[in-house]
From TrEMBL:
<dbReference type="InterPro" id="IPR004839">
    <property type="entry name" value="Aminotransferase_I/II_large"/>
</dbReference>
<keyword id="KW-0808">Transferase</keyword>
<comment type="similarity">
    <text>Belongs to the class-I pyridoxal-phosphate-dependent aminotransferase family.</text>
</comment>
<dbReference type="Pfam" id="PF00155">
    <property type="entry name" value="Aminotran_1_2"/>
</dbReference>
<dbReference type="InterPro" id="IPR015421">
    <property type="entry name" value="PyrdxlP-dep_Trfase_major"/>
</dbReference>
<protein>
    <recommendedName>
        <fullName>Aminotransferase</fullName>
        <ecNumber>2.6.1.-</ecNumber>
    </recommendedName>
</protein>
<dbReference type="InterPro" id="IPR015424">
    <property type="entry name" value="PyrdxlP-dep_Trfase"/>
</dbReference>
<dbReference type="GO" id="GO:0006520">
    <property type="term" value="P:amino acid metabolic process"/>
</dbReference>
<dbReference type="InterPro" id="IPR004838">
    <property type="entry name" value="NHTrfase_class1_PyrdxlP-BS"/>
</dbReference>
<dbReference type="InterPro" id="IPR050596">
    <property type="entry name" value="AspAT/PAT-like"/>
</dbReference>
<keyword id="KW-0032">Aminotransferase</keyword>
<keyword id="KW-0663">Pyridoxal phosphate</keyword>
<dbReference type="GO" id="GO:0030170">
    <property type="term" value="F:pyridoxal phosphate binding"/>
</dbReference>
<feature type="domain" description="Aminotransferase class I/classII large">
    <location>
        <begin position="34"/>
        <end position="376"/>
    </location>
</feature>
<keyword id="KW-0670">Pyruvate</keyword>
<dbReference type="GO" id="GO:0004069">
    <property type="term" value="F:L-aspartate:2-oxoglutarate aminotransferase activity"/>
</dbReference>
């Protein structure tokens, strides 16, 4: 007997991109102190008031099966939030509550991709994107971007791969680069989707973490609401990573089918977690700003450190909780640099190669430890890079 190819081929037969992270965790388990700048996990945990709301809901009895598409009041709240932020008319009919953003990404591709079909996504990409696409039985096709263009996607590159594709997945603010897609970029993406009849899946889980520019949901662009599925999550905006709660916003007929899918897969999200999410959303932008502020502050610290040398360069960090650093002047790949930094200084970062070929020679640094520790770690990283620098290296 064999397990299915759909499952056994999720990583494409190679690494899943998390090797350095797993290595760091093994070191920690062996008692080695490691500073983890790897995953997007807040160093401050879920706000106590949100946990208190969750506790009230659970002890009050909201522990049975919740309605599969999501409780009505939460769907109403999410819809109102999206309408307020985008200006696009949105109701609960457009919302499905999911067990986190990753579940929403999987469901969105189940809705838009047929087995054996092509599904496009922008590189650099969050490490689970190609595996998610393979998991639904589709063929992942990466659209490259370029560091010297701040990793902004080109419409013509998308169009070149659009034949036979059914969907395009984008992410802005972007993980791993921290880049916020410009209006010009998004208008080009939208035009390409219209011309080639593509569904657009827009991963917007970092929409509350914008440090420069503006977050534009492509669903708000002309004629795009009917072909766009937006993925949202409470993980980043409200530090509720472990609660596993997110949503899809899509045309109502898509939501109807996705509710059927959820009945046969997740069977919904626990009611007490939904109640806590509703409470959190009703606290408004002040709570979201409080949760985002450490990353804004650390971005400023990082820019000062990096400005003081010329070995490591910073891709414009316009949003999200990450920095994408160009370390090509060291002569090492992102993977080799990350392993050497971990072995030598016990600082763990993610290699750029974990996020696709477009990020080769880069590393991703999560700004997820307290300020003084973050500052010290980044200074150590930069100094380490300077000791490795190849004088004749061309980082263009």
């Amino acid at each position: 007997m064999q397990i299915s190819q759909r499952i056994s081929n999720i990583t494409g037969g190679g690494s899943d991109g998390w090797d350095v992270f797993y290595k760091a965790r093994r070191m920690i388990a062996d008692g080695v102190p490691v500073t983890e700048l790897t995953i997007g996990e807040h160093d401050i945990r879920t706000d106590p008031t949100i946990l208190a709301a969750m506790d009230r809901a659970a002890t009050g009895g909201h522990t049975g099966y919740a309605i599969v598409p999501g409780i009505q009041t939460l769907r109403d709240t999410v819809a109102a939030r999206i309408q307020d932020r985008t200006g696009v008319p949105t109701t609960s009919r457009n919302i499905l509550i999911t067990p986190g953003g990753q579940s929403a990404l999987f469901a969105a591709h189940m809705a838009t991709c047929s087995p054996g079909g092509r599904a496009l996504y922008i590189a650099p990409y969050y490490a689970t994107y190609p595996g998610t696409i393979r998991g639904v039985g589709a063929i992942p096709v990466a659209i490259p971007t370029r560091a010297h263009e701040a990793f902004q996607p080109r419409a013509e590159d998308i169009a070149a791969e659009a034949a036979g594709a059914s969907s395009l997945l984008i992410n802005s603010p972007n993980n791993p680069t921290g880049v916020v897609y410009s209006r010009e970029t998004l208008e080009g993406i939208a035009q390409t989707c219209r011309e080639h009849d593509l569904w657009l899946i827009s991963d917007e889980v970092y929409d509350t973490q914008v440090w420069q520019g503006e977050h534009i949901s492509p669903r708000a662009l002309p004629d795009m609401a009917k072909r766009t599925l937006v993925v949202g999550s409470m993980s980043k905006s409200h530090a509720m990573t472990g609660s596993r709660i997110g949503w899809i916003c899509a045309p109502d007929e898509v939501i109807d089918h996705l509710a059927n899918l959820a009945t046969h897969t997740t069977y919904g999200v626990p009611g007490f977690i939904q109640d806590a999410a509703e409470y959190a959303l009703t606290q408004g932008p002040d709570l979201e700003a409080k949760i985002a502020e450490p990353f804004r502050r650390r971005r400023a610290l990082a820019r000062d450190i990096i400005a003081g040398q010329n070995t490591v360069s910073l891709i414009p960090a316009q949003g999200a909780m990450y920095l994408m650093l160009d370390i090509r002047p060291t002569g090492l790949s992102g993977e080799d640099f990350a392993n050497a930094l971990l072995d030598t200084h016990h600082i763990a970062v993610m290699p750029g190669e974990s996020f696709g070929k477009s990020a080769a020679g880069h590393i991703r640094v999560a700004m997820t430890v307290e300020d003084s520790k973050f500052t010290k770690s980044l200074q150590t990283l930069v100094t380490f890079a300077q000791t490795l620098a190849v004088p004749s290296a061309n980082a263009s």
